[in-house]
Amino acid sequence: MGSLVRRTMGGIVVCVALALGGSGISAADPVSPGAPLPVPQLELTPDVAALVPDPDPFYAAPEDLASHLPGDVLKLRQLPPSYYFPGSALWELLFRTTDSRGLPIAANTTYVLPPNHVPDGPLASYQHIINSLGHKCKIASELYTDDPMHQIREAAGLNIALARGWAVALPDHLGPRMAYGAAKLGGQVTLDGIRAVQKVPELQVQKSKVGLAGYSGGGMATAWASALAPTYAPELDIVGVAAGGAPMNLVKMGEALGANPHPAFGLAMAAALGLEREYPDRVNVTGQLNNNGRWMRQMIGNGCTNEIMFWGLGHSAAEMTDNRNFMDDPDAWKVMEENSLELYPGVPSAPLFEWHSPTDALIPVDSIDHTIQRYCAAGVAVQSLLTPSPDHLSAAVLGLVPGLDWMDARFRGDPAPSTC
C-alpha cells in the first residue's frame, strides 16, 4: 500500500509489542488469521465499547479530588489474603495522581507486605504488563478472580522479592481510563503510588529505599517513572531501576509495523483506543472506523489480553477504516512522540539495569541503544544485559533473576556497576 499508508496506518499498530510478555492465542483457538469479521451478525451499539466503570465504589474519585496533592491517599483498605502471595498482608490504596493533560485523577495500587519485612526495609514498585482496556483486567481485580484466563503471571518473581523481605507495590499504571499505550501516564501513576504507600505509617515504608522494576509494557512505565522522577517526584529515594524489553519509541514502531495482518493486531487496536481515551481532543480513532472497526472496538473495548488477542488475530488496520489517510494527523503523531522515552530529554538520577534481546523484532532495539547511550553520557550508571534469546517473550524470564540480584545490591548500598 506504499510508504504513506505504512506511516498513516502504522499509528494504530504503534504499541503492538507493549505487552507480549503476557499471554497469547494457542493453536487450538478456533480462529483463522485474517478470517472475515462477522460484523453483519451483530447489532452495533455505538456506546457499548465505552469504558465500563469499575463497579467497586472504592475506586470512585472523591468530589474534593482537585484539592489533594499528587500522591495523597484518598482511600485505604486491607484486602483478604491472596494465594498468589502466601503469608503476606495486602492493602489497596486509592491516591491522587495526574493525567497526561495535567488534570487530577484517582489511581490505585496494591501493596503487599511480607511477614519478614522490617520497618523501613526495601520497597519495590513492580509495574506489571497490563494489556487491557477493561477494569476487570486490573491487577487489583485479577488478584481475586477464579478465572484461569486472568492470572498474575509475574507472581513467581514477585515471591522471590517478598522472600527477601521487600515490600511490593503493584500499581494499576494504566490509570482510571485504562489508557493502554499512554506511557508517560504510567510513569506518573507509578511515582504517585510510591508516594501514597510511604504516607501510611502502618505500611512500614515511610523511609524506605525504593526500587522500580518491570518488563515490556511494564518496563516502559518503569523507565518513564525513572526518567520523570528527578523533576516529578525528586523526594523519593529511588536507589535502582530494573527495566527490560521496554519500547522506547512509539513513532518508530508505528512507522515500521505498517498495515499488514498481524497475530497481535488486537493489542495494537487496543493501544490506539487507549491513546484516544487519554487524549480525546488530539487522537481520533473511533471517528475514522468503518463497520469492521466499530465491531472490533465493540468486542475489545472492555477486554483483557486473551479477548483482545482472540478477536484481533490476523487482522490489520487496513480492515478497520475506509480512509487511506487514517491517522495521518500531525497532532496524533505528536502524542506518540510525547510518549516515546527516546525523545524525552530528561535522564534518571538512579542507576539502571536494562535487559533485552538484541534480535527482538517487536520493539525498536536501536531506540533502546540510543537512550542508554544518552543516559551514559549524562553520567547514569547503566548495566545492560543482552539475553541470548532471540525473541521478546523468553528474554523477560532470562533477565528477571539477574535484575533482582542487581536490585538487592542497590538496596544494600553497594556501588552500582556500569557497562557504559
UniProtKB/TrEMBL annotation:
<dbReference type="InterPro" id="IPR029058">
    <property type="entry name" value="AB_hydrolase_fold"/>
</dbReference>
<dbReference type="InterPro" id="IPR005152">
    <property type="entry name" value="Lipase_secreted"/>
</dbReference>
<dbReference type="Pfam" id="PF03583">
    <property type="entry name" value="LIP"/>
</dbReference>
<protein>
    <submittedName>
        <fullName>Lipase family protein</fullName>
    </submittedName>
</protein>
